[in-house]
Design brief:
1% strand; mainly alpha; transport
Length: 475
């Protein structure tokens, strides 16, 4: 009679040890499994009749697409998010974007820290995988990172506190403006909290059908949203370092310096491009005064990085502006942030490699630091995997649709991959088969091309030999 509990305990211990071994050996695969599991759970929640305003079950494609968009903090939708989902549905959306924005592995580590009051090595490695993709690969990793492994506990606290504080600050900035607009106090409180969460997580969903129309030319309101979007897109490692050494730039790591410099340049150059390209477009900026043109240019430039909010009809942008937006979306925001894309540091590394090659230098250097070659290989892999994903998805969608403009299809595919959320209107009107493709594109974009590649290659073993060297002709 005493053998049954022993058997159960043994099975439980085996299951626990198996899960622990899987997590420790292949954190990249673990991340993919957790993301897929969350999407399944939220798909079931969105399929409940209580989740829709009509009281009917949402079609599978709408429930799945919304779940992926929420967990991957993308912002694309196949339905009118404001009117289709009930208050219960919007509560699920709010919870989902908070989970997806912070990062599944980071959130799991935070919960472990809260429960156990300490952070074990496995939890540090999981959280570090969210903060630095290099650490999801097997083998030793040099600790010359923005956040060292020993500082992971402090980083997790920074993630939790910064998310709470930034969203609260943005909500407090939006609340009085909504009251001035005539929104009832309770509605203004909920909407300001909702929008601030969507801004910080770079999702872009809005709780009302009129969207940003009442505040389309409001400097205060749009600036508050930009503040939340940029704070979320800059990256938690950058926030962590700045919180410790804001007034001591000499102590900033190379990652922080490259992120801030590249992020700022892209923001300004993007705004300048929109200002010039849309100057005479009567459907966008053509009828605005100079001050509004500057405001709208910077707003669109920041939203194109992953924010997803828009005060204009994206489909009315000039073709050249659509191309600029494609490039900004593909680049995205900072590493370990709520933004998507290949990340700004990846772009910086590629340019540094090109500069080093042009000067005839063997090493990449920046701010008196040498950057190892494995970082360049990782950056090239990210770009190639990203470009391949975008190309494959675009070709497949073009085969599944009739008379769909290439520029609109490419725009929405890049928006899905980069988890941006801006749309030309194609996503909502696309056939279900194309919407499923976009959903998978969002998933691959959010889990990260590096994570996906590492998960697929986790079973590979290092080679014990090297073949003779020979140089092919390049260029």
């Amino acid at each position: 009679m005493r053998t049954a509990p022993t058997t159960k305990a043994t099975l439980y211990e085996r299951l626990r040890d198996g899960i622990d071994g899987f997590v420790a050996a292949t954190p990249a695969r673990f991340a993919i499994v957790i993301f897929a599991g969350l999407i399944l759970v939220f798909t079931l929640l969105f399929s409940l009749p209580i989740a829709t305003t009509s009281g009917e079950r949402a079609p599978l494609v709408d429930a799945l697409f919304t779940a992926v968009s929420v967990i991957c903090v993308t912002g694309l939708s196949t339905v009118d998010m404001a009117t289709y989902w009930s208050p219960f549905g919007h509560a699920i959306i709010f919870i989902g974007v908070e989970i997806g924005g912070v990062g599944v592995l980071t959130l799991a580590s935070i919960l472990g820290l809260v429960i156990s009051r300490k952070l074990g090595l496995r939890q540090k490695l999981l959280a570090a995988g969210d903060a630095n993709p290099l650490r999801i690969r097997k083998g030793p990793i040099a600790e010359g990172q923005a956040v060292r492994l020993g500082e992971t506990g402090s980083l997790l606290l920074t993630v939790a506190i910064s998310a709470l504080v930034i969203e609260l600050v943005v909500a407090l900035l939006l609340f009085p403006r909504m009251l001035i607009e005539g929104v009832p106090a309770l509605d203004a409180a909920w909407q300001s909290i909702y929008i601030s969460a969507m801004a910080f997580t770079n999702t872009g969903f809005l709780p009302t059908s009129e969207g940003l129309t009442p505040y389309a030319d409001d400097v205060w309101f749009l600036s508050a949203i930009m503040l939340g979007v940029i704070a979320g897109a800059i990256g938690f490692p950058v926030i962590y370092v700045l919180s410790k050494n804001l007034r001591r730039p000499r102590k900033w790591s190379l990652h922080v310096k490259l992120t801030i410099l590249t992020f700022g340049l892209l923001l300004v150059l993007g705004a300048l491009a929109y200002f010039i390209l849309e100057f005479d477009n009567p459907k966008t900026f053509g009828q605005l005064d100079p001050g509004q043109r500057i405001l709208q240019s910077f707003f669109l430039s920041s939203m194109a990085r992953s924010g997803g909010f828009s005060t204009i009809d994206i489909g009315q942008l000039d073709g050249s502006s659509l191309l600029v937006t494609d490039m900004l979306m593909f680049i995205g925001g900072g590493s370990a942030s709520t933004a998507g894309g290949i990340k700004v540091t990846t772009l910086a590394i590629l340019f540094l490699a090109a500069f080093a090659e042009a000067r005839g230098h063997d090493d990449m250097e920046a701010y008196d630091r040498r950057i190892p070659s494995d970082v360049l290989r990782l950056g090239v892999s990210v770009v190639l995997w990203g470009a391949t994903t975008v190309a494959a998805s675009s070709i497949l969608i073009l085969l599944l649709t009739d008379d769909a403009p290439l520029d609109h299809v490419l725009f929405d595919v890049i928006s899905a991959f980069a988890t941006c959320g801006l749309s030309t209107g194609f996503t909502g009107s696309a056939p279900e088969s194309a919407q499923y493709v976009l959903a998978f594109t969002m998933f691959f974009g959010r889990i990260g091309t590096v994570t996906l590649a590492a998960a697929l290659a986790a079973s590979q073993h290092p080679r014990m030999f090297r073949r003779p060297e020979e140089r092919p002709i390049v260029g």
